[in-house]
Amino acid sequence: MRDSSGLDARKHRSRFCERREWTSEKKGHTVTSKSFLELTSMRAEVNLPGGNDFSDVTELFVNAAAEMPPGEVLFRDGFTLHDAMSAFEIGEPRLDSGMVIEGQQRPPFDPWAPLLPQEICWIIDRSFAYEMLFHAGNPLAHTVFTSLYTLVIHELHPDMIPYGDELDAHLISVVLRAAISGMLKCCDLTWRELSTGHMYDTEDWQSDKCETSLLEGMSVPNALIGLDNATGWLIRGRQVPEPWMTALVARLNLRKVLLQLMDASVFRSPSNFMQLIGIARNHLKTVQSYPAPEPPEGSVAHLAFDPYIARKLNSSVPIRVIPPPPIAETWKAVEHMLDGWEELRLLSLTTPIATWETAGLLRAWLPDPPLRSPYIRSATQSVFYDGLLVLNKFSPQWVFDRFFYETLGISQQSVVQFMEQHTTEAWHPWGDLQRGHFKARRPVLMTEYIRALWFNPGRRRRFLMKMLVELHGYYAQMVEIQASIPALPVTDIMAHLPSCVLLWRLSMVRDVVLSGFQLELYTAEERSFAYWYLGQVIEAHLKCLDRLLLAVQPESTQARELRFQHSFLTALQAMAVPMFLLSMPLMSFAWTQMNANFRRRYKWAFVGAYSLSTIPVVAQPDFDLFMADCTRALKGRGASGDTFSPAGSFELAKTILQRLVDERAVGGYAGLWTEDRIRLLQCLATASEQLSTDARIPATAADLPSFDEGLLKWDPATSPSAWFPVVDDAGKERRRNKRARADGAQVA
């Protein structure tokens, strides 16, 4: 039996928390507060903790709030914003998730309520939208499970059809049930892939199932049979009029092929995998040709989705209403997923590790297509290395061999034989290096690096920072090995084994610096050093490439790739050096504060593990050298002298990049990603052209003091390249307003 006093208390709590609005005549502001008016009228009904002698203070708070402008917060002495946020934490928001306010009240959900064919199309489309939101990293409780049919899917069996219109009942029990079952099974396969550990829970995706079924016990063939039966019922019976029969069939077929793609193995049958992608694209076009209209306001179709369903689930996160995107964006997200599967299939047929690196870098550098969904990125990592084999056929030892072949054009066995012939030591350092390349039978050099290229940008940056320490250890071992053999001429490939490792390490340092611009990590004061350090890293990288080009075969694939990298880095350096000078006025030149910021931003370069090696680290960030270069630049004695031209440097970069585009000189390992690499070069060429042709960019070093640094605007979303700014008059105005606000805050 229910406790009547408990029911009264709950009713009272609902009325107690009812929200009211008052409008101040003086200020015209609308203030929302919780009403206490119901309290006195219920004293006789409820005994409140602490007694019933409460006074209504609503008017007091209303009058006080009316005097406050919007957004203002009042704190008493000793009560800070941190204290306020701690109070919110202690007052766990999930504790109030069960409270239903008036605007959230809904009639009971009837899964057998009759639906029109176009309404079922709309429900299926909206389910696709929520599924794509789940793929984007949102919880199931706020996306997929908001479709109430997913919670009662086991009740929609044809044997449980109630009395009524047979057509309406079969539309739900056959068609809608098959579509929802297929969606849940796709989510189940997605969950299984993401739970393999390649992606990070709560960072890339949300694993909380809320103890709700994703049809884990249903096999994929059974889900496919249900979709086939629904399609057959629509076509054979022809009880659904056109165009909705075609629209429903297209949506069922699209769901079927997506489920087949998730269940298929790209290695088992590559041609069939590609055929499925083509079929999915055709079905997607058909679905887009038959859009489902928004049901009228009173339609029961709207009751099929409850954005507050998380209050009834065993959810571990507060309720957050996520509005579904426009249907055009949903189909675009599905198309991006198909693009990811197509690239996955191409990668499965790609053997060169350098091509895998190129594809991964281009996905991180190019804004279009956007970052792949966590599911596609996880599947890509599984295809490359499943924990046992690389590309489903090579042992991890094979990666160690490719490491040397793709850089120097020699096999690892050739290196081993050379070492055995020339090493005079009793111990064999090469064997130690090779054993150190693997830890617990897990490759930690090339394999983990390639997989990290499909991490999310923040995780990828952090992983590369940690890997730089280990790569320096490999480089130091290579230097020691080189010292143990007789001196060799520079044209001998064996004289450049340390440069083989250094080449990869400098590439990662460059990516760490550039990722700071893409993630918008650098403050205005930090940008000048970032560009200066980028120029220093590229300079060391170019010297390494110069050494390797002396030894590799001139017409080999390795030589073509090295020449491309040399030209690409030369253009990148020609853009970084003038940006160092143009953004230098953004600094405060408060040496102590700048040094502290430098240590915080580049702490990854000064970890204690570097001190374990006696070999100096190449291209370490040096704040003292940076300040010395700034001093010389301020005195007009830059590294390039007074003849240095920022505009001319940008023009040089544009010339180099445009030549690479026109000649399609994209190196030796671009492979099927040639067009993507050309698009990257074109983006950089466009950015350098805009900077070189703008009349406000200084033409000579003497014009640098007159340049208004407020014109520079860094916005990865609008700039041709996320690494470099554009010259924008609006940026000057924003900077002026920001300075005014800062001065006002300082005065206050």
UniProtKB/TrEMBL annotation:
Domain annotation NAA35-like N-terminal: ranges: 71-220
| InterPro entries with a match to the protein in the record | NAA35-like_N (IPR057983), Naa35_N (IPR007244), TPR_NAA35 (IPR057982)
Q: Which PANTHER family match?
A: GLUCOSE REPRESSIBLE PROTEIN MAK10, N-ALPHA-ACETYLTRANSFERASE 35, NATC AUXILIARY SUBUNIT
Pfam families this protein is in? Mak10 (PF04112), TPR_NAA35 (PF25789)
The keyword Protein biosynthesis is annotated on this UniProt entry = no
Q: Which domain of life is it from?
A: Eukaryota
What's this protein's family per the entry? Answer: Belongs to the MAK10 family.
Entry's transmembrane regions: 568-591
Can you name a GO cellular component term? NatC complex
Q: Where does it live in the cell?
A: Cytoplasm
**Full protein name:** Mak10-domain-containing protein
